[in-house]
Amino acid sequence: MKKIFKVDAIVTCNPQQEVIEDAFIAIDGDEILDLGPYKKRPRASSFKVEERPGCVMTPGLYNLHTHLAMVLLRGIAEDLNLQTWLFDYIFPAEKKWVDREFVKIGTELAVCESLLNGVVSVADMYFYQEEVGKILDKAGMLGVLGVSYFDHGAMDSKSLDQSLKHAVKLSNEYKKHDRIQVALAPHAPYTCSPETLRKTAQTAKDHKIPVMIHLSETEHEQKEIQAKYGKTPADYILEAGLAEAPYLLTAHSVWLSPSDIQKLNKKHVTAILNPQCNSKLSSGFAPITEMRDQGLRIALGTDGAASNNRLDILSEIQFLAKLYRLKTGDLEGFSGPDLFDCATIRAAEAIGWGDTRGSLEPGKKADFILFDFAKAHLTPLSDVYSHLIYTAQSTDVEDVYVNGQCLMKKRKIKVMNVDRVMNRARSFFHKMKSDLKMKPATRVA
Ligand SMILES: [Zn+2]
What we know:
The protein contains 15 helices and 16 strands. By secondary structure, it is an alpha/beta fold. The mean pLDDT is 96. Zinc ion binds at residues 65, 67, 214, 251, 303-304.
C-alpha cells in the first residue's frame, strides 16, 4: 500500500544529518519512496495521506546489547559490586530458573517494553534463542539472536560443541530472513577459555556467523586477564580470531587501552557502549574521545534489565550526552546528531544493515518512529535535536513502524497483548520469589 505521512519534522540520520521541517515521507509497502518538504509531496491519488500534526519522525532506535529475558530478574539485587552481583546473585538465579518458559515470558515482556520505548531492533545475548527468534518474528521487530554460552555450554546445551552446533543450525534457518540474524555470543573473556574463543572464531569464519561478546567491562576483568594470559582482554579475543567473523560487537568496551582501540578499529567491529549500566555498577567510563578520534564505530546498548534497569535507548543517548560532557569537559565534540546516529545509522551499520536500514532515505526500509512533540515540555519546537537529546522522553514515542508495518499506534502495541504478557510475568516472578536470593534496594526496618 502506498502511503504518505505528514509530520512537523523528519530527522533523517542521512550522511548530511538533515532535518526536514513540515515534511512528508512516502512509502510503498516496506520501502521508502521519497521524503522532503510537504509542499513537494507526490500528488498521485494512489497515496493514502496520514496527517500527524505535532509529530516528529526519526528512524527506529537500536539496542545493540541486551539480555531481553532478564527483565524477570529486574530489581532482585541492588547496590552490589559487579562481581558479587553477578556471581552471588544473577548467575545462581539464572542457573535455577532460566529455562524455555522463563525466556519466552521474559522476552515477550521485554519486546513490549522495547516497542513502547521506540526500539525497533535488539541484539539479544541469551539462551533458547529459537524462542526469542519466534517472538521477534511474530512482533515484526528486527534483531540479532546471540546464542550465548560459556566453556561448558549453557542453560540450553550440555557442551560448547552443542552450543556451536545449535548456533549454526539456527543461523542456517534465518539465513534468508529479512529482519532477523543469528550471532555467536561467547559470554566474556573471564568466562571463556582460549579454546572456547578459538572454536568460536573458527565457527564464525566457516559459517559466516557474526560474534558478540562482553569485553573489558571492569578493571577487575582487565587485571584478571592480564594476570592469567599476560595480555589485555581485547588482545585476548583478537588473538583468538574473533574479528574474523563477518562482524564483531564488543559490549561495554570500558577498559580499552589506546592500543586496544587501534587494534579493534576495523570496519566490521563496533564498540557497544552501555553508559547507564556501567555507571550504576561503577564499572567505569569508556574512552569515547579516543574511540572517536581513531574512528572506531560506537553504538549503544542498555544491557539487561537486572543492571540498567530499563530497556530504554533514548534515555541511554541522553545519559551519555551528559556523562560525556561531565567526564571529558568537551562540550562541543560529540554533537546531538552524532549521539543520535549511534542509536540509528551507526547501529544499523554495525550489524551489516547500513545500506538498507538505520536512516530515512529513498530506497531504504520504512523503519521509523513518531514522537508526539505537542507536549508542554517539548513546546516550542526550537530545535529538534536539542529536544531529542535533552528533553524528550521515551513515553513521547507514539507510533513504531518496521518494514512499513505498524507495530504500535498511539502507544497501543498492535502485535502483543501487553496485559496478558504482564500477567504471565507476574505469575512467573511469584513462583520464583519464595526461592530467590535477593538483595533489594529497599531498607527493611
Ligand atoms: Zn551484558
